[in-house]
Amino acid sequence: MSKPIHVTAAVTALCSPTAFAIVDAYELSTSISIPAQPSEAPSTEGDSAAASIDASGPKLECTIAPYIWLTSFSGDLMIRGINFDVDASFFDIVDNTETVLGLMGAVDLVYDKWVFQFSGAWTRAEVERARSLNPNLNVSGDLRVDTTWLELFGGYRFIDQPMSDKPEDQRRWRLDGFAGGRLSIIDAEASVSSNVFVTLPDGSTIEAGRTRRRDMSETWLEPYVGARFGADLSEHWRTEIRGDVGGFGIDGSDFSWQAAAVIGYRWDFHNWSLTAFGGYRALSQDYSNGGFGWDMIVHGPIIGVGFSF
């Protein structure tokens, strides 16, 4: 008499909502009935079915995450030899900027244990009456800074395991290591003024009460290495922490570091999921080339959504 054998196939879908994306997993169990062979002829159909399931191989998971980064700037900006002190919160920038513009987003890919991410951010900030840090140079400047960052990294998932030994506990934690590159594009403009006659570092002069416009544009590419830790807090809540360091004196970039922490809540739908997340991100860069310098920490809250499929 033929007796049904039940084989359970587990399909895992990972999602990670940002460059600092939150990664989670869920399992769908499908029962497949395979008639057993008589006891005198041992069955191999179960093994064949398992081999067929395994032959499907790892799946490609993708997450697209638009987000908002409420940026504040703290550091020094040098334009044609004039070094300005910049200390502007997000609310200061909103007050000084007629149009607050910002475009940010990330695309995450996971294939087996390989992880990839492409992310970009563009924002405009205007700072009023930034004072000069140059000795004996009595000037101030109204600044407008357009910043663009494009990042690409590839890495490996070294750890992906359950949070506990209980079969009913579906929570997992993960650890990724990665390496990549960051392209930075800074367009800076300063309207420089003084209440006395001064000679600027480039040899030009400003008469008392007059204003002179100075602008520079700089582009550089810096490498970085880092790690990303993610954990399931519950069935729906996820968290992630990411950090990286880079620059290493290459292409004028003395040193850079970045840190981000996010937490998110996920809703599951048919073949896709939606995650709302929030957190904090900080990026520090120390770059100089000729009369341009960018020794700045850009930081602030991030808020966004991730679509995973």
How would the blueprint of this fold be written?
Elements (H helix, E strand, L loop, with lengths): L3 E12 L8 E12 L9 H11 L4 E10 L2 E8 L2 E7 L1 H7 L5 E10 L2 E18 L8 E23 L9 E22 L4 E2 L5 E2 L4 E22 L4 E10 L6 E17 L2 E18 L2 E17 L1
Concise summary:
The chain has 309 residues and is mainly beta.
Q: Your description of this structure?
A:
This protein has a single domain (60-308), classed as OMPT-like (Lipocalin, Beta Barrel), CATH 2.40.128.90. With 309 residues, it is mainly beta. The strands form 3 sheets. It has a 10-stranded antiparallel barrel with strand order 3-6-7-8-9-12-13-14-15-16. The two termini are 43 Å apart. The protein is built from 2 helices and 16 strands. It has helices spanning 45-55, 90-96, and strands at residues 4-15, 24-35, 60-69, 72-79, 82-88, 102-111, 114-131, 140-162, 172-193, 198-199, 205-206, 211-232, 237-246, 253-269, 272-289, 292-308. It is 6% helix and 68% strand.
